Amino acid sequence: MLSRAALSSSRTLVPALGALGSRQKHSLPDLPYDYGALEPHINAQIMQLHHSKHHATYVNNLNVLEERYREALEKGDVTTQVALQPGLKFNGGGHINHSIFWTNLSPKGGGEPKGLIPLLGIDVWEHAYYLQYKNVRPDYLKAIWNVINWENVTERYMACKK
Ligand SMILES: [Fe+2]
User: Fold this and answer.
1) At a CB cut-off of 8 Å and minimum separation 6, what does 49 contact?
2) How far is the CA of 102 from the centre of ligand 1 (A)?
3) Is the pLDDT of residue 21 over 70?
4) Which domains, and CATH codes, for the chain?
5) Residues forming the annotated binding site for Mn(2+)?
6) Distance of alpha carbon 91 from alpha carbon 107, whole angstroms
7) Distance 148 CA to ligand 1 centre (A)
8) Selection from 115, 116, 133, 114 nearest residue 124 by Cα
9) What is the average pLDDT across 122-136?
10) Which of these ranges, 94-103, 119-128, 141-150, has the smallest mean pLDDT?
11) pLDDT tens-digit series, residues 68-91
12) Binding residues
């Protein structure tokens, strides 16, 4: 679950979405920083699990489901096509939301937004904070502002306005 003030699509996401209609497989994007780069606000263990396990699972599931969907399309199996749709939405959304989330964070983040209404997603699933903050989600939500990449948020806002 991503709690978001708003979320924009941007040109950087077009390749991810474009793969839905082709035989191209989705792949896990590299983080633009090391797993430990957001410490002490988000520790390396969380970042590693979150990226290499949780996000990777969305990507893998999406690829499997898309393959099954293509087979169902070829067979004209509408019942299977319909049955696969919730999983496609869930895993496709998870892949896109996490791809945005990583770029909304930066070791050089923090500070204040630059006078714009932010387009920012913050992951509030327990896997995003529990290992470090346990059940105290408000502390995670306080700390994360130290690593928000306002430059990226501003870029997304500007791309959305065009
Ligand atoms: Fe997540």
Assistant:
1) 127, 131
2) 10
3) no
4) 44-160 (1.10.287.990)
5) 50, 98, 123, 127
6) 27
7) 16
8) 133
9) 96
10) 119-128
11) 999 999 999 999 999 999 999 999
12) 50, 98, 123, 127
